[in-house]
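Because showing beats explaining, we let one protein speak, sequence and backbone structure tokens together, and leave readers to judge.
___
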Amino acid sequence: MNYLLIIVAVLSAFLQGGCSVAPWERGTLAKPQMALEPNPLQTELRGHVYGSREAATTSGSGAGGGCGCY
């Protein structure tokens, strides 16, 4: 199973290396909704709150207070 995933990853890397983007298509790709992470600040905030809450549920981790505050 792992070999299959490696082969697919290598093949997809080779296939992506061969495509070109025309200059008039770069404007479309530069739009915020085309980003892999369209809202990085919101994702970071959610990660911080999630990490704080999860740290409060475990014993001995020592990180975060569990209130979700900064």
Observations:
- Residues 40-57 form the longest helix (18 residues).
